[in-house]
Specification:
- With 589 residues, this protein is mainly beta.
- The chain folds into three domains: 200 residues, Sandwich (Jelly Rolls), CATH 2.60.120.200; 278 residues, TolB, C-terminal domain (Neuraminidase, 6 Propeller); 62 residues, Sandwich (Immunoglobulin-like).
- The protein is built from one helix and 47 strands.
- The structure holds calcium ion (2 copies).
- One calcium ion binds next to strand 5.
Length: 589
Amino acid sequence: MKHLLTLAFISSVLSVSSAFAQYATDFEAPTFTAGSTINGQDSWTTSPTANGRVLTATQIEGELTTLGVTPGVTVHSGSQALLVSGTGSSGGTVRVVTGLGSETEVLLNVWVRPLTSTMNNPTGNVFVVMENSAGKRAAGFRFGPSQSIDYGLVSGSWVPTGKKWNPNTWYRMTMRVNYTSQTYDFSIDGVQVNTSPIPFYEAASDSFSQIRVYRGSNQAGVIVDDLSVSVAGPRREIFWSETGGFGGPNLGSVYSAAFDGSGKVAIVTGLNRPIGLALDIKNGYIYWAEDGFGTTDNSRIVRANFDGSNPTPLFIGRKVGGAADEFSNAQILALDLVNKHVYWTDYFKGVVRGNLDGTGYTLLGGSNETAQAVQYTALALDTKNGHIYYGDPTQNGRLFRMNMDGGNKIEIARDLATDSWWFNDISLDVRHGYIYYTDAGTHQIKRMNMDGSDQTVLLTDPGLNPFGVALGPNEKMFWIGGTGMRLGTANIDGVSDVNLNLASTDTTTGFDIAAVYVPVVPADVLITEIGVQDSTVTITWTGGLAPYQLQRRGSLTDGVWDDVGTTTTAMQATDTVSGGMMFYRVRSN
Ligand SMILES: [Ca+2]
Ligand SMILES: [Ca+2]
């Protein structure tokens, strides 16, 4: 049942709104007039003048139809965007931005949709660069040939990121450029793709002066929207909540820092017991759940930008006068961005599913037990297998599972902590089949299989009372505690690269933690074709993750699987057979 109490919600919030942007534009009226060249508008230039135009969504739709491209979503925000397209000679579309010339680190954030065409050369040489006043390029990215997303490297070469671009997709591209070290970092949809800093494209680029969108001759072009350039500011890569305890209202905060713990800053303060955190990395949004305080300060689900700006309440659970199916004490939360849902646990009522646009929510309920009272905090989603995991902090910690629609509720594990209230948070590694969790009583970070078996202590963090645990990139995990007032990190094996004091908290009320990380959850390996020609068998598959190993044995049910050849990154392999029967399987990384 949809709940009726919702808040007014602005759906067209600018996604990349940096609070202190030196220049930010969404290409909307009245600053821009649609239907004509951008040359001369808001200090932009373009050459040839037909190259860059500000158009309405409908006008772009017409252009794309002419190009033979599926129109799809033609603007990222509002009703207008910049289309850099055309035929014939190549050209540049440039905006000079003053005021950043003496800054060490400058950040460009821009939404871009690359195009193909059935008329022109379909791909290549559509790029966005950051230049000094002489047009020397510090940093750039390209929608290159073979639908490869590339970044610019010293002496003007382009390096494939390994990511392919799709002509019907909007990408958020970010370049963080350091003019002292003359290096930059490049992120696609909020995830950094370079593992070490990228040397400048041109060393002569000594300061930031202008943005250039360049289209090679006869290239199909790009649509650009929601562009901002600013002082880079602190890196926001890990986030944590400090509830503020029970001493009074408005004492809670959400913090962020870089992966190395530097640059700690409270991005939002004055909250009522913020607990759960979840990140929409592509759009740069943080969501938090507030338990509320006492009998009057309501529970809330709120969305904001990574820097804490533009906090937008999506749902309010009233402390007084709430309906029977209204939440009152939101705890941990998680996102299903594909289906546009936010899930959270209500301490008393179990799992709640809300629409990301704030239009309503549904109680999916708890464990369905009547013999004893059950409360709820821990929550995580396994969208690949269609499961919601949710926990009870009482009764020494229990873990349950339900289907995404609330059906098939079962208990997975119990006695997860030494006492009640010490089990509150889990983090899933669906790819490897693990659930990470904390036991604040024994100060331990633990792991179990997704069916609850093999409960294993990974490490002990003495005196911390660890509550929240999150997985991060490069096989790292992060956790946060109460009494010990700090964050720890280690490799996910719990043994290597252990740092028990990555950053300090300001209070003893640290609870949940989240990291900028998109876990790789590959599709199952599926053999799609087996071809036999003479004595050669060719096996083709989809899914999984490289490296792959083809294996064979003579019986479907018995015998040892033998490797056929060595591992491969291809999705096809061959074998030589001489009559009889052979069974094959493909092992994925
Ligand atoms: Ca726009
Ligand atoms: Ca968590």
